Amino acid sequence: MKGPITIIVEHVRGVVRPAAYELVTLAGKMQSACRVDIRAVILGDDIGGCAEKFSADCGVPVAVVSDSRLRDYSAELYTAVLADVLKRMEPSFVCVPHSSQGADFASGLALRLGAACITGVEGYHAAEDGMLFYRPIFGGKIRAAIRPKAATTVLTLQPGSCRPHTADAAADAQVDTLDVAVADRRWGELTTRPAEKTGVDLTEAKVLVAAGRGIGEEENLELVRRLAEQFPQSAICGSRPIIDAGWMPYSRQVGVTGATVSPELYVACGISGAVQHLSGMRGAGFVVSVNSDPGAAIFNASDICIVEDLKVFIPQFIQLVDEQ
After folding, report:
1. CATH 3.40.1080.10 given to domain 5-177
2. Domain pair 5-177 / 207-323, same fold
3. What is the pLDDT of residues 65-79, one digit of tens each?
């Protein structure tokens, strides 16, 4: 009998990251083809309440490893502890967010398990001869279909590739605390500094307003911000040229080398439509593009195409909203 699909729950000091709920969605879709159980594993310190909430929200049994040495993320300890836990479970698939943390330990974990490892997964297909997983290669110019041959496969899912799981009603929590030996770290931590908050997380925003090279000058970012303010639960983001120019922090970048997003509405301002950027916004529900070039490639991926200078369109749009 095949082993379960196991989700590694990523959290920050007991607060579960949205990517974990996307993994539940992926696992649920895979389960219909694999017909195996879904389980979750969470590591940390004093995270019983966090595990119970996740289990109740998702209807998934959760195995907990609690130890003070796991309070903060450590690739060394996570890889060792997860390998110990997963060898007991003998999973068919291990699902990990393709975050800086997940990408850090996934390959090492696969090595310890003797498993296949497919990173940056954006989709899957259940074929007659096994599961196919899709990921971008060559800077997003090609989408590869990969079929794992190992008994266990470690997958990292690009954030934004699936809608986060939402339950109609809370289920009974199923939490099991595991007794796992946690070794001391072989290095000492001097200090940690949290990243500066720069607005709503891109993977959580329902509306994203994106700026590209076509906005012309950094001063025009103010127009993009004003446009975003017209929508609830919105955030601004940018293509790589904007980030490379230093106009926005890297955390705001969408594309192959940035975030993969799936907002309900994506408004592209001055974005040409390079394949690297399109790869990051492919999951958007509805796309509106504003570009003065009628031949811009972004229009091929848009639901509404507005051929106009954004310095003309945005003020007029905001004025119409104010008049309503």
Report:
1. no
2. yes
3. 999 888 888 899 999
Closest CA to 238 of 263, 268, 264, 217: 268
* Both tokens assigned to 221: 């970012």
The side-by-side arrangement of strands in the sheet containing 123-127 is 123-127, 130-137, 142-146
Distance CA 112, CA 318 (A): 55
pLDDT digits (tens, 9 = 90+) for 190-238: 666 766 666 678 878 899 999 999 999 999 999 999 999 999 999 999 9
- Nearest of 40, 29, 32, 37 to residue 2 by alpha carbon: 37
Domain spans of the chain?
5-177, 207-323
CATH class of the domain whose range is 207-323:
alpha beta
Apex 94 CA angle, 74 and 172, nearest 5 = 95
